[in-house]
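FORM 12-B: Structure-to-Sequence Request
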């Protein structure tokens, strides 16, 4: 999450060349992660958060446990593009909360930098999701491709929205600036 968002990074994502290779820990959690338990649990927790958010009962701190599960899932399996998307959604919800409910974070440049950093994380997660999907595309059969294309549309929409939100006021390109 420390890398800048450059045109080269975006290019690599859309050509399926954006990869994150980690050595597999192969410990007792590997089987649990491979079965998708952390991913499914994250999906359920995210759906619960969305329901609570609609009724205005959700807090951004509730996303911390979802982020932890998704990061663990990605640590053991970086090729699950859906997990990258969900992690990006978590960060987007945090940015949305900062922009809508905590306007004091927009009053000074120093306070905006925290929100911009979270926004950068969201954009990078969406780019990783796109890159991971496109890198795996040729290995999928047609039915899976149709289902995954629906998810890819959501990823691209979220990437576009977050990129525009970062470019326009009140954030005014701050998430694209490096250091």
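FORM 12-B RESPONSE
SEQUENCE OUT:
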């Amino acid at each position: 999450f420390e890398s800048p968002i450059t045109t080269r990074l975006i290019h690599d994502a859309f050509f399926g060349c954006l990869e994150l290779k980690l050595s597999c820990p192969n410990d007792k959690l590997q089987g649990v992660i491979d079965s998708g338990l952390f991913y499914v649990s994250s999906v359920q927790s995210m759906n619960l958060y969305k329901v609570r958010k609609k009724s205005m009962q959700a807090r951004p701190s509730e996303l911390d446990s979802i982020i932890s599960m998704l990061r663990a899932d990605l640590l053991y399996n970086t090729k699950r593009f859906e997990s990258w998307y969900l992690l990006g959604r978590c960060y987007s919800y945090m940015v949305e909360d900062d922009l809508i409910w905590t306007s004091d974070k927009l009053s000074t440049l120093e306070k905006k930098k925290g929100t911009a950093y979270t926004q950068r994380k969201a954009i990078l997660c969406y780019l990783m999701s796109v890159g991971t999907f496109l890198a795996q595309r040729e290995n999928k059969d047609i039915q899976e491709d149709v289902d995954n294309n629906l998810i890819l549309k959501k990823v691209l929409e979220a990437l576009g929205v977050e990129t525009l939100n970062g470019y326009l006021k009140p954030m005014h390109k701050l998430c694209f600036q490096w250091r």
